[in-house]
Amino acid sequence: MHVKVEFHHHVFYQIWYNLSTMNLDDIVKTLDGTLVAGGESDRTVGTVVANDLMSDVLLNDGDDILLLTSLASDQAIRTANIVGAMAVVVHNAKPLPQTMCQVADALGIPLVSSPLSKYESCVRVHDFLSAEGK
């Protein structure tokens, strides 16, 4: 398993995993989350991107991106659609606008709400994927 982690300005994290089997159910369970919109997906995580700056997210060329963000707006879902994300997780139990959920449903992008901080979610995803490779 190949792992690469980058930290930029303390707000941008990328973790690449090859051959991951982490799916939406694993994401929800690992992040103590709730699937709130977008429906189910059978896609697995290819790349993890944790960022609140959607302009930075657009620079990613990974496949099957899991977007971890604190941005609770339609912009996060629309950006996820552009980069081909497999799911979006919004952190800190932020209230999700109805329009965000509607856009996620319309685009078929699973939207998960998590009570965890983005940092804690990164740690948990890393731990899950590291254990998976053993």
How does this structure look, described?
With 134 residues, this protein is an alpha/beta fold. It has one domain (3-132): HprK N-terminal domain-like (Udp-n-acetylmuramoylalanyl-d-glutamate--2,6- Diaminopimelate Ligase, Chain: A, domain 1, 3-Layer(aba) Sandwich), CATH 3.40.1390.20. 34% of the residues lie in helices and 24% in strands. Strands 1-2-4-5-6-7-3 form a 7-stranded mixed beta sheet, with helices on both faces. Helix 3 runs parallel beside helix 4.
Give the structure's gist in a few sentences.
Helix content is 34%, strand content 24%. With 134 residues, the protein is α/β, with parallel strands linked by helices.
Give the amount of beta strand, in percent. 15-25%
Alpha carbon gyration radius: 13 Å
Q: What do the pLDDT scores average to?
A: 86
Q: Would you give the CATH topology?
A: Udp-n-acetylmuramoylalanyl-d-glutamate--2,6- Diaminopimelate Ligase, Chain: A, domain 1
The helix content is 25-40%
Overall CATH class: Alpha Beta
Structural class: alpha/beta
Number of domains: 1
Write out the CATH superfamily name.
HprK N-terminal domain-like
Keywords:
globular; 24% strand; 134 residues; 7-stranded mixed β-sheet; alpha/beta
Task: Lay out the secondary structure.
Blueprint: E1 3-8, E2 12-17, H1 24-30, E3 34-37, E4 47-50, H2 54-57, E5 65-69, H3 74-83, E6 87-90, H4 98-107, E7 111-113, H5 118-132
Parallel strand pairs: 4-5, 5-6, 6-7
Antiparallel strand pairs: 1-2, 2-4, 3-7
Helix pairs in contact: 3-4
